[in-house]
Amino acid sequence: MFxxxxxxxFCRCEGCKMKRxxxxxxxxxxxxxxxxxxxxxxxxxxxxxxxxxxxxFLLMVCVVVGFFRIIx
Length: 72
Description:
Blueprint: H1 14-22, H2 24-46, H3 50-71
Helix pairs in contact: 2-3
């Protein structure tokens, strides 16, 4: 029922980690998320809303998970 069918999202083998490190799309996506995160933090200095805080939290989770998948 829970058979592993190759390399999936949570694969931690060295080959998958190397593919993620060398992928321009993956790094570009992480960089764009990081830039949007910085922009939202700067915007929140002037206008604080619950939506901005929620968006910052969501972006931080996405960036941390992305870097976590590369490192571990």
